[in-house]
Amino acid sequence: MAADDQDDLQTPSKSQRKREALAQQELGARLTALSPSKLDRLNLPSQLAAALTQFQRLPNSRGARKRQLQYIGRIMRDIDCETIEAGLTALATTSDKAVGNQPVIDLNEISGLILAQGDPAITALVNQYSQLERQKLRQLYRRHQQADAAQADSIKKRLLNYLSERLAA
């Protein structure tokens, strides 16, 4: 009976293993909320990075994202989560410091400049923000100029989404 007591002390209970798996899955869910540039800074294993990229591409229909989150949690069982947690903490503190030094970017103002001025505004913005792609901005600008009123609003929303993705990272 004494040998059974020692085995119980060495292996975690099923409940403990489940709590750990859920914690890892929650950490994976926090990672899915990060932008690709922030994920690159964490130096994640390639299998986990690929699963996170795949998660971003999935629609939320029929539980696809939920299944992908479970898969991410499964991958994270084999990974040292403490280093990822420390990387997230360091990333949060550096981004907090960066917010204090950076001026606030008004995306509505930037999109209004692009849609009003066209190429000169796009050139100035690409020179100021290297993460923006000139071709994508010009494409959205041309589509907006050619669109009717209903499509123009949709294209403006796409422009705002693109700017928020690129400038928030």
Describe this protein's structure.
Helix content is 79%, strand content 0%. By secondary structure, the chain is an all-alpha fold. Helix 7 crosses helix 8 and helix 9 packs antiparallel against helix 10. The longest helix has 21 residues. The N and C termini lie far apart (58 Å). The model has no long low-confidence stretch (mean pLDDT 80).
Q: Structural class, please?
A: mainly alpha
How much of the sequence lies in strands comes to under 5%
- Strand segment tally: 0
**Tally of structural domains:** 2
Brief summary of the model shown:
The chain has 169 residues and is mainly alpha-helical.
What descriptive keywords fit this protein?
mainly alpha; Diphtheria Toxin Repressor, domain 2; 2 domains; 10 helices; 0% strand
Q: What topology emerges from the helices and strands here?
A:
Blueprint: H1 2-10, H2 14-32, H3 36-41, H4 46-57, H5 64-76, H6 81-101, H7 107-117, H8 119-128, H9 134-146, H10 149-168
